[in-house]
Amino acid sequence: MPETFAFLSWDDPFGLELGGFGAAYAEYLGFKVIYSKKVAHGTMDYTPYITELKNLDPDIVVLSGIDATAQGTFWKQCLEQGYKPRDLHANYGMLAAFRKQIPLGKDEGITTDVMYHPELPWSGRWGKDFYLKEVAEKVGYDVLEYVEMAYVFMSFEIACSAIEIAGTLDKDKINETLHTMRIMTIGGPWWAQTPPPDEPEVYSAPFKPPRGSGFGTIIHHPVQIQKGKMVILWPSELKTGEYIYPAPLG
User: Fold this and answer.
1) N or C: fewer beta carbons within 10 Å in the chain?
2) How far is the C-alpha of 111 from the C-alpha of 232, rounded, in Å?
3) What are the distances in angstroms from CA 221 to CA 13, 138, 212?
4) Which residues pair with 188 in a beta bridge?
């Protein structure tokens, strides 16, 4: 099983927060982070980083915050330079923009995250068929390659439900409803949760975000691309396959 991690993050607030949390949480879980680098926003030549990673040989390389096009470019350059870690986790590896940068089929084995997958069991406010057929199919987008559209759809489910439950267009009452209601979306059950006071502290400066309440409960699901299909790996009650490690990258 993997023991060491490497993190490559774009040097912007989003990339640094993702990379910082990821590195801190990996260490909290008992893994060793042997490489953590900030990359200038917009970087498209990853040769120096690939050389460093080759020498350090981490088990898992995590790309955090770097956009899908740049992540695809990174992986294309890894393939060209003969570098294959035992797992590559690209947080935008599901997107069409990632796949367009690499040769056909060379995303095999990569792990990534999705907030929505057609094999998840939930139907949401208007039903799974409404999202997959009436919306995605008619508009003409793949729900996995353009997974951000699910975020928009779930936000719409939450907003419509809040208005309906509040029974008014009064902003204060809608806001109060948003903080107290519980509904089912296509991505799973949603409510505005308050972090428990005994939540483990895994953030480290300068990546520590402000604590507060109202965070939603919908999670990202780790998936691995296996024979061209995105297999859900977690949670155990929803997984559609087993994690393959070392990953058959490329």
Assistant:
1) N
2) 10
3) 23, 26, 23
4) 185
Give pTM, 2 decimals: 0.88
Count the neighbouring beta carbons within 10 Å of the beta carbon of residue 118.
12
| List of residues 6+ apart from 244 with CB closer than 8 A | 109, 224, 226
Q: How far apart are CA 82 and CA 70, in angstroms?
A: 18
Per residue, the 3-state secondary structure of 105-119, as one string, reads: CCCCCCEEEECCCCC
Question: Residues, the chain, total?
Answer: 250
The single-letter DSSP state of residue 41 is T
Written as six digits, the tokens of 209 are 């975000």
Task: Assign residue 214 a region (left: φ > 0; alpha: ψ between -120 and 50; beta: otherwise).
Answer: left
**179-200 residue pLDDT tens:** 999 999 999 999 887 765 555 4
